[in-house]
Amino acid sequence: RVKMNAEEILVHAVKLGKNFCLYFDELECDALCKDNTLHRVLRNVNSQLLVVRPDLNVAAFENVTDQEMQSGKGMHFSIHCYKTTTPLAGLPVAFSVQVENKSYYMCCEKEHGEMIVRFKEGKVPKEIPGESNIIFFKTTFTSCCSQAFKFEYSMERGMFLAFEEEGYLRKLILKKLPKDEVDETTKMSL
After folding, report:
1. Of 136, 125, 181, whose CA–CA distance to 161 is shortest?
2. What is the percentage of the chain residues whose pLDDT exceeds 70?
């Protein structure tokens, strides 16, 4: 093991080549690689389920009946966990959901100077070579609440997935929070 920049990097020498040059194997690039996938529903602090409605371009937390949950339209998420070679502020994850035989992934985009959450048709990649607008850092909500989580947007620190009341909807948004502030609108259970 060689220590560099306070990180440990494991290097395996493969062979000594011409002119005594070393050749290496299993070098990792600074990228995110899909590790495993969890299949869950996302609940807010009010026990409402996150439901994606791509036809209306909206994702909101709703009260869902058992029968609606069985049909699962837009509420059964795949949470794609990634492994990385660099230390991060939590477990890197991406979200996708199936709606009427189509796959949609969650991403964030800037619109009219404001960051918004969108669901676009397509699949999450197996590898992400650098920064990505689909990655969130999953951490426990608080140290004493290990069964609930918060998700920080990877490209803008301090921005978290949350809900906001908009009329009768509890719409999924990105919310800016001061460091270490506890905000119940960012609390989600899987």
Report:
1. 136
2. 83
